[in-house]
Specification:
Layout: H1 4-19, E1 29-33, E2 39-41, E3 57-59, E4 65-67, H2 76-85, E5 91-95, H3 98-106, E6 109-110, H4 115-121, E7 125-128, H5 136-146, E8 151-154, E9 158-163, H6 166-190, H7 199-208
Parallel strand pairs: 7-8
Antiparallel strand pairs: 1-2, 1-5, 2-3, 3-4, 5-9, 6-7, 8-9
Helix pairs in contact: 1-6, 2-5, 3-6, 4-6, 4-7
The structure holds zinc ion.
Protein backbone atom coordinates (compact mmCIF):
# COMPACT_ATOMS: atom_id res chain seq x y z
CA UNK A 1 0.00 0.00 0.00
CA UNK A 2 1.25 3.50 -0.83
CA UNK A 3 1.93 6.05 1.93
CA UNK A 4 0.77 3.90 4.86
CA UNK A 5 2.31 6.19 7.48
CA UNK A 6 0.70 9.31 5.97
CA UNK A 7 -2.67 7.56 5.85
CA UNK A 8 -2.39 6.54 9.50
CA UNK A 9 -1.52 10.12 10.47
CA UNK A 10 -4.45 11.47 8.44
CA UNK A 11 -6.87 9.11 10.21
CA UNK A 12 -5.39 10.06 13.59
CA UNK A 13 -5.83 13.80 12.91
CA UNK A 14 -9.36 13.29 11.52
CA UNK A 15 -10.32 11.50 14.73
CA UNK A 16 -8.74 14.20 16.87
CA UNK A 17 -10.61 17.07 15.16
CA UNK A 18 -13.83 15.07 15.52
CA UNK A 19 -13.15 14.24 19.17
CA UNK A 20 -12.80 17.93 20.05
CA UNK A 21 -15.87 18.96 18.04
CA UNK A 22 -14.37 20.66 14.99
CA UNK A 23 -16.49 18.37 12.79
CA UNK A 24 -19.61 16.28 13.40
CA UNK A 25 -20.57 12.91 11.90
CA UNK A 26 -18.59 12.44 8.67
CA UNK A 27 -18.02 16.15 8.00
CA UNK A 28 -14.79 17.82 6.91
CA UNK A 29 -11.71 16.24 5.38
CA UNK A 30 -7.97 15.87 5.86
CA UNK A 31 -5.39 15.77 3.07
CA UNK A 32 -1.64 15.75 2.52
CA UNK A 33 0.44 16.52 -0.58
CA UNK A 34 3.66 14.56 -1.16
CA UNK A 35 6.81 16.05 -2.79
CA UNK A 36 6.01 14.26 -6.09
CA UNK A 37 2.58 15.96 -6.21
CA UNK A 38 0.50 12.97 -5.11
CA UNK A 39 -2.44 13.95 -2.88
CA UNK A 40 -3.65 11.69 -0.05
CA UNK A 41 -7.23 12.48 0.99
CA UNK A 42 -9.98 11.11 3.21
CA UNK A 43 -12.96 9.47 1.48
CA UNK A 44 -16.37 11.12 1.09
CA UNK A 45 -18.95 10.49 3.82
CA UNK A 46 -17.13 7.77 5.78
CA UNK A 47 -16.92 7.66 9.61
CA UNK A 48 -13.47 8.50 10.99
CA UNK A 49 -13.73 6.20 14.03
CA UNK A 50 -13.65 3.05 11.91
CA UNK A 51 -11.58 4.39 9.02
CA UNK A 52 -8.73 2.17 7.83
CA UNK A 53 -5.70 3.19 5.73
CA UNK A 54 -7.02 1.33 2.67
CA UNK A 55 -10.06 3.66 2.66
CA UNK A 56 -7.87 6.75 2.33
CA UNK A 57 -7.33 7.66 -1.33
CA UNK A 58 -4.25 8.61 -3.30
CA UNK A 59 -4.59 10.93 -6.30
CA UNK A 60 -1.84 11.89 -8.71
CA UNK A 61 -1.01 15.52 -9.42
CA UNK A 62 -3.56 15.51 -12.25
CA UNK A 63 -6.29 14.60 -9.77
CA UNK A 64 -6.82 11.00 -10.91
CA UNK A 65 -7.32 8.37 -8.20
CA UNK A 66 -4.33 6.02 -8.30
CA UNK A 67 -5.13 4.06 -5.13
CA UNK A 68 -8.39 3.38 -3.29
CA UNK A 69 -11.87 2.19 -4.22
CA UNK A 70 -14.01 4.80 -2.45
CA UNK A 71 -14.96 8.25 -3.70
CA UNK A 72 -12.57 10.93 -2.45
CA UNK A 73 -13.89 13.87 -0.39
CA UNK A 74 -16.38 15.98 -2.34
CA UNK A 75 -14.11 18.97 -1.66
CA UNK A 76 -11.17 17.39 -3.50
CA UNK A 77 -11.45 19.86 -6.40
CA UNK A 78 -11.05 22.74 -3.90
CA UNK A 79 -8.25 20.96 -2.03
CA UNK A 80 -6.39 20.36 -5.28
CA UNK A 81 -6.76 24.02 -6.23
CA UNK A 82 -5.17 25.01 -2.90
CA UNK A 83 -2.23 22.62 -3.35
CA UNK A 84 -1.77 23.76 -6.97
CA UNK A 85 -1.62 27.43 -5.97
CA UNK A 86 0.21 27.26 -2.62
CA UNK A 87 3.63 25.61 -3.06
CA UNK A 88 4.43 25.87 0.67
CA UNK A 89 1.22 24.13 1.72
CA UNK A 90 1.49 20.35 2.08
CA UNK A 91 -1.52 19.69 4.30
CA UNK A 92 -5.14 20.91 4.25
CA UNK A 93 -7.76 20.32 6.95
CA UNK A 94 -11.35 21.35 6.33
CA UNK A 95 -13.68 21.60 9.33
CA UNK A 96 -17.11 22.94 10.30
CA UNK A 97 -15.90 24.27 13.65
CA UNK A 98 -18.75 26.33 15.13
CA UNK A 99 -16.99 29.17 16.97
CA UNK A 100 -14.68 30.17 14.13
CA UNK A 101 -17.64 29.85 11.75
CA UNK A 102 -19.63 32.14 14.06
CA UNK A 103 -16.86 34.76 13.79
CA UNK A 104 -17.36 34.64 10.01
CA UNK A 105 -20.99 35.67 10.49
CA UNK A 106 -20.19 38.87 12.40
CA UNK A 107 -16.72 40.01 11.24
CA UNK A 108 -14.31 40.12 8.30
CA UNK A 109 -11.54 38.48 10.33
CA UNK A 110 -10.71 36.96 13.68
CA UNK A 111 -8.34 39.69 14.85
CA UNK A 112 -4.98 39.03 16.47
CA UNK A 113 -6.13 39.05 20.08
CA UNK A 114 -4.24 36.09 21.61
CA UNK A 115 -0.66 34.85 21.31
CA UNK A 116 -1.73 31.30 20.44
CA UNK A 117 -3.50 32.50 17.31
CA UNK A 118 -0.37 34.38 16.21
CA UNK A 119 1.84 31.40 17.10
CA UNK A 120 0.10 28.92 14.85
CA UNK A 121 -2.08 30.87 12.37
CA UNK A 122 0.58 33.62 11.95
CA UNK A 123 -1.75 36.49 12.86
CA UNK A 124 -5.37 37.49 12.28
CA UNK A 125 -7.42 34.89 10.41
CA UNK A 126 -9.36 36.26 7.43
CA UNK A 127 -12.96 35.46 6.48
CA UNK A 128 -13.53 34.51 2.83
CA UNK A 129 -16.93 35.28 1.27
CA UNK A 130 -19.46 32.49 0.76
CA UNK A 131 -18.65 29.77 -1.74
CA UNK A 132 -20.58 26.55 -2.30
CA UNK A 133 -19.24 23.39 -0.68
CA UNK A 134 -17.66 20.91 -3.10
CA UNK A 135 -16.98 23.70 -5.63
CA UNK A 136 -13.62 24.81 -7.03
CA UNK A 137 -14.72 28.30 -5.98
CA UNK A 138 -14.22 27.21 -2.35
CA UNK A 139 -10.53 26.63 -3.15
CA UNK A 140 -10.22 29.85 -5.15
CA UNK A 141 -11.69 31.93 -2.30
CA UNK A 142 -9.52 30.14 0.26
CA UNK A 143 -6.31 30.83 -1.67
CA UNK A 144 -7.25 34.47 -2.27
CA UNK A 145 -7.99 35.14 1.40
CA UNK A 146 -5.31 32.94 3.04
CA UNK A 147 -2.69 35.54 2.17
CA UNK A 148 0.19 33.62 3.76
CA UNK A 149 -1.80 32.70 6.90
CA UNK A 150 -2.37 29.17 8.14
CA UNK A 151 -6.18 29.31 8.22
CA UNK A 152 -9.14 30.98 6.56
CA UNK A 153 -12.77 31.08 7.71
CA UNK A 154 -15.28 30.21 4.98
CA UNK A 155 -18.39 32.34 5.50
CA UNK A 156 -21.54 30.29 6.24
CA UNK A 157 -19.51 27.08 6.08
CA UNK A 158 -16.43 26.39 8.19
CA UNK A 159 -12.65 26.61 8.10
CA UNK A 160 -9.74 25.63 5.91
CA UNK A 161 -6.49 25.22 7.85
CA UNK A 162 -3.22 24.68 6.01
CA UNK A 163 0.44 24.19 6.78
CA UNK A 164 3.78 22.92 5.57
CA UNK A 165 2.99 19.77 7.60
CA UNK A 166 -0.19 18.07 8.82
CA UNK A 167 0.86 18.89 12.37
CA UNK A 168 0.92 22.63 11.53
CA UNK A 169 -2.53 22.51 9.93
CA UNK A 170 -3.91 20.59 12.92
CA UNK A 171 -2.57 23.15 15.39
CA UNK A 172 -4.00 25.97 13.28
CA UNK A 173 -7.59 24.75 13.29
CA UNK A 174 -7.48 23.74 16.97
CA UNK A 175 -6.09 27.05 18.25
CA UNK A 176 -8.26 29.00 15.83
CA UNK A 177 -11.32 27.47 17.51
CA UNK A 178 -9.96 28.15 20.97
CA UNK A 179 -9.23 31.81 20.22
CA UNK A 180 -12.53 32.27 18.34
CA UNK A 181 -14.29 31.12 21.52
CA UNK A 182 -12.25 33.56 23.61
CA UNK A 183 -12.84 36.50 21.25
CA UNK A 184 -16.59 35.87 21.03
CA UNK A 185 -16.83 35.62 24.83
CA UNK A 186 -14.86 38.85 25.27
CA UNK A 187 -16.94 40.61 22.63
CA UNK A 188 -20.20 39.48 24.22
CA UNK A 189 -19.02 40.50 27.69
CA UNK A 190 -17.78 43.88 26.50
CA UNK A 191 -20.79 44.48 24.28
CA UNK A 192 -18.47 45.62 21.51
CA UNK A 193 -14.78 46.45 21.28
CA UNK A 194 -12.17 43.89 22.32
CA UNK A 195 -8.51 44.61 23.16
CA UNK A 196 -6.16 43.59 20.35
CA UNK A 197 -2.42 42.95 20.21
CA UNK A 198 -0.12 45.55 18.67
CA UNK A 199 1.67 44.73 15.38
CA UNK A 200 4.93 44.40 17.39
CA UNK A 201 3.34 41.94 19.82
CA UNK A 202 1.92 39.94 16.90
CA UNK A 203 5.32 39.80 15.19
CA UNK A 204 6.97 38.69 18.42
CA UNK A 205 4.38 35.93 18.92
CA UNK A 206 4.81 34.70 15.33
CA UNK A 207 8.60 34.57 15.74
CA UNK A 208 8.67 33.10 19.26
CA UNK A 209 6.79 30.02 18.19
CA UNK A 210 9.45 29.09 15.65
CA UNK A 211 11.64 27.86 18.51
CA UNK A 212 8.84 26.23 20.53
CA UNK A 213 8.91 22.50 21.30
CA UNK A 214 11.54 19.85 20.69
CA UNK A 215 12.45 20.50 17.08
CA UNK A 216 15.76 19.08 15.88
ZN1 LIG B 1 -17.58 21.55 4.45
Amino acid sequence: MMYLQDKEEIIEVANEIKRIGLVQLTGGNVSVRKPNGDIIVTPSGMPYETMTPDQVLVLNKDGQVIEGDLRPSVDTVAIKYIFDHCPNVNAVIHTHQPYATAVGLIADELPACCTTLCNVCLGAVPVAPYSAAASEDMGIQAVEYLDGKRAVILKHHGVIAVGPTLHDAEYSCIYLEDVAKCWLAAKAAAGGEVALMTPEEVEEAVNTHKTYGQKH
